[in-house]
């Protein structure tokens, strides 16, 4: 399959794989164990241009495309899902919103830094608002040329580490879904603070925090896109976000298979390597087939996006399928590795814990089924 890729995509894969093996993998278990943010690796992701992989050189990117991005993201996620989600949220959500909706001034002020050293958060979810995103409670009230924001956001990836926060808030409740707006808030804005840091089952090195907004003043110049279009923009950007999480799930699954193949070729029982049992061979053959099918769904999304075509249904399908496969694959890989696979001496148990979130964030699997069923006309 990789043989079908253009030389530039094969090169991206090789470089990303080398980077992942050398810089990301050695830290993965420690980040999980210590539940700490990869402060060593993120500056290197900036330095080597990973975040800009799919953005034009004229804007500060590397001049690649979405296919290059998902190829790189799979390689990173194969060895560390924590680093994978940070990469995906930055490149797929935050930077995607700046690129699509930012004014030239905003691109200069925010997007440039997002290529070089500044992380960006995307904050839609609230304590009482998850799948039903239309029910946002954070409010933005006009005050001259500014808006005053009040509310609480929940479960925000990279919170506390980011420079900029894209906050979805209600500007006109009467307009319902057309009454929400995206605001860019700086980390040091008076009244803005990062609250509780969640302790999680997996992706434990990524920061997931509450955001508290108490009378935060934001200039109208820091509205991203048009007033009232915030929810629409947020949902559209989730297409790209979902392609990223589908890729993260794909990487987790492939990483688990790769580790398990290494293990079963070493471990002996009944005088044979475990890899010599037909059960092991058939199981891994089935799992790899599913992972390859998932990769095709991810690449289809990337190709549609690169062609400028709609890919919302395809992104939902890629996420639904790959997250399901990642959970199945990692569970089976722990099983194939027996008791050792259950311990933290091997990465399979971490991968199994990491896989679960891919069925939840950027829309649960049930939410993906809503998107797909609507798109195929089932009412
Ligand atoms: C680690 C982590 C990182 C995250 N990062 C971010 C981030 O950076 N930015 C951000 O804005 N959000 C983020 N989120 C939030 C995430 O997107 C939400 O958790 C997710 O969308 C689900 O919302 P919820 O948790 O409120 O679940 P709920 O909406 O309460 O859903 C609970 C269950 O009910 C089901 N359900 C809900 N409605 C329906 C329905 N109509 N039909 C059938 N089933 C339904 C769901 O599928 C799910 O199984 C993150 C969450 C986590 C855990």
TrEMBL record:
GO MF annotation, one: acyl-CoA dehydrogenase activity
Domain Acyl-CoA oxidase/dehydrogenase middle: from-to ranges: 121-216
Keyword Cell division among record annotations: no
InterPro entries in UniProt: Acyl-CoA_DH_CS, Acyl-CoA_Oxase/DH_mid-dom, Acyl-CoA_Oxase/DH_mid-dom_sf, AcylCo_DH-like_C, AcylCo_DH/oxidase_C, AcylCoA_DH/ox_N, AcylCoA_DH/ox_N_sf, AcylCoA_DH/oxidase_NM_dom_sf
Keywords of this entry: FAD, Flavoprotein, Oxidoreductase
Residues in Acyl-CoA dehydrogenase/oxidase C-terminal domain copies: 228-376
Required cofactor(s): FAD
Keyword Zinc attributed: no
Stated name of the protein: Butyryl-CoA dehydrogenase
Organism encoding this protein: Frisingicoccus caecimuris
């Amino acid at each position: 399959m990789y043989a079908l890729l253009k030389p530039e995509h094969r090169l991206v894969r090789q470089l990303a794989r080398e980077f992942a093996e050398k810089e990301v993998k050695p830290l993965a278990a420690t980040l999980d164990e210590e539940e700490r943010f990869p402060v060593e690796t993120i500056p290197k992701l900036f330095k080597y241009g990973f975040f800009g992989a799919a953005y034009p050189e004229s804007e500060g990117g590397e001049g690649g495309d979405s296919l290059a991005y998902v190829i790189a993201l799979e390689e990173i996620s194969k060895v560390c899902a924590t680093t994978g989600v940070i990469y995906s949220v930055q490149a797929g959500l935050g930077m995607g919103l700046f690129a699509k909706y930012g004014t030239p001034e905003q691109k200069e002020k925010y997007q440039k830094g997002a290529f070089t050293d500044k992380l960006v958060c995307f904050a839609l979810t609230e304590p009482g608002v998850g799948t039903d995103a239309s029910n946002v409670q954070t409010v933005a009230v006009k005050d001259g040329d500014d808006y005053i924001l009040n509310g609480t956001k929940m479960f925000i990836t990279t919170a506390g580490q980011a420079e900029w926060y894209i906050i979805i808030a209600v500007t006109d409740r009467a307009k319902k879904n057309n009454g929400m707006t995206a605001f860019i808030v700086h980390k040091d804005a008076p009244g803005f603070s990062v609250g509780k840091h969640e302790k999680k089952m997996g992706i434990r090195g990524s920061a997931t925090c509450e955001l508290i907004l108490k009378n935060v003043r934001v200039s109208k110049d820091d509205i991203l896109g048009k007033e009232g279009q915030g929810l629409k923009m947020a949902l559209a950007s989730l297409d790209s976000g979902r392609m990223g999480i589908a890729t993260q799930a794909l990487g987790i699954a492939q990483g688990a298979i790769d580790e398990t193949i290494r293990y079963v070729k070493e471990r002996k029982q009944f005088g044979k390597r475990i890899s010599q049992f037909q059960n092991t061979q058939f199981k891994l053959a089935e799992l790899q087939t599913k992972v390859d099918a998932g990769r095709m769904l991810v690449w289809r999304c990337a190709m549609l996006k690169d062609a400028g075509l709609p890919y919302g249904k395809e992104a939902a399908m890629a996420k639904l399928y790959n997250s399901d496969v990642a959970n199945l694959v990692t569970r089976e890989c722990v099983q194939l590795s027996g008791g050792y696979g259950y311990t933290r001496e091997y990465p399979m148990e971490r991968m199994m814990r990491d896989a679960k979130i891919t069925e939840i964030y950027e829309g649960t699997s049930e939410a993906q089924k809503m998107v797909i069923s609507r798109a195929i006309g089932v009412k």
